[in-house]
């Protein structure tokens, strides 16, 4: 291994976010054989980043310093659309897009986000660790990306607004709501009668603050760590979509790892994913109280009026066609008949 000269150390350091310079120093000095970048869209305090850092530390150790993964959290490398392009080109080696976001490249990946399909986590993990998840991973592989086996949890998406609580489908009427860059989300909120706009997550806080949009929808842990409660008044537990993150790798970068390294990396990431699911589960027990204490008014609408509206608008029929019979059958096998 070539020792790094002073100039290349400086160059490497200047490419790092300030916070990781100190922790990166010892490994930079050793110059790992595989030095990979991982970008994501969440603040450092989210369990996804906490567990990913643990996985990266474990990988560095178990690979005896051969595989180093540097994390660039919180959209430091650009929004989701940018990071998806980077992981495809090899500009970064790892990325965790939500199923909604990777679906802009691999349409069937949005199948887990069909409105009101999953009723609880038992159904979610049985499907995503089982046949439905395998089907999606196969589709992702065709885009020369490697998807790790275990999905990480984002959560059941809830609706927040600065205007009014959403108590039934009629409260969605004309609602200016931000959704991710996701054809399914746009279609679903249009079906509900709302006026959705796609924005990358990196733009959400400001868009709410400046009232470009009045509402947004995200799982509660994100509303908490991204401090969206500061710019929203009402939190309505609509549970409309279950969303998770695919941990993906650039295909060439993945193939470049020797088998023994692949085993180490996959084991650490998949096990960290399972722990991250537990973290979110625990967080879900305390997060409502915390958000209420921070001033968010919480209400719990029944799902019926939303489901009925989506059926009427033809949402399920349309997406059954778009996803195709095979994927739809796998979804209905996991959650029961939808339309
Ligand atoms: O952009 C969002 O809303 C987020 C953070 O949930 C996703 O990654 C889809």
List the helices and strands and how they pair.
Elements: H1 6-14, H2 18-30, E1 34-39, H3 47-62, E2 67-72, H4 80-89, E3 94-95, H5 99-102, H6 121-128, H7 131-141, E4 145-147, E5 152-156, E6 158-161, E7 176-179, H8 183-191, E8 195-198, H9 204-209, E9 215-218, H10 220-225, E10 234-236, E11 242-245, E12 248-250, H11 251-256, H12 259-293, E13 297-299, H13 304-312, H14 315-323, H15 325-335
Parallel strand pairs: 1-2, 1-3, 7-8, 7-9, 10-13
Antiparallel strand pairs: 3-12, 4-12, 5-11, 6-9, 6-10
Helix pairs in contact: 1-2, 3-12, 6-15, 7-15
What does this 3D model show about the protein?
There is one protein chain. This protein has 339 residues and is α/β, with parallel strands linked by helices. The protein has a single domain, classed as D-Maltodextrin-Binding Protein, domain 2. Helix content is 48%, strand content 15%. It has 15 helices and 13 strands. It has helices spanning 6-14, 18-30, 47-62, 80-89, 99-102, 121-128, 131-141, 183-191, 204-209, 220-225, 251-256, 259-293, 304-312, 315-323, 325-335, and strands spanning 34-39, 67-72, 94-95, 145-147, 152-156, 158-161, 176-179, 195-198, 215-218, 234-236, 242-245, 248-250, 297-299. A 6-stranded mixed sheet has the order 8-7-9-6-10-13, sandwiched between helices. Strands 2-1-3-12-4 form a 5-stranded mixed sheet. A two-stranded antiparallel sheet has the order 5-11. Helix 3 (47-62) links the parallel strand 1 (34-39) and strand 2 (67-72). Helix 1 (6-14) runs antiparallel to helix 2 (18-30), helix 3 (47-62) runs antiparallel to helix 12 and helix 7 packs antiparallel against helix 15 (325-335). The protein is globular, with a radius of gyration of 20 Å. The protein starts with 5 loop residues before the first helix and ends with a helix. The mean pLDDT is 94. The structure holds (2S)-2-hydroxy-2-methyl-3-oxobutanoic acid. Residues 41, 98, 100-101, 154, 180, 201, 218, 222 line the site of (2S)-2-hydroxy-2-methyl-3-oxobutanoic acid.
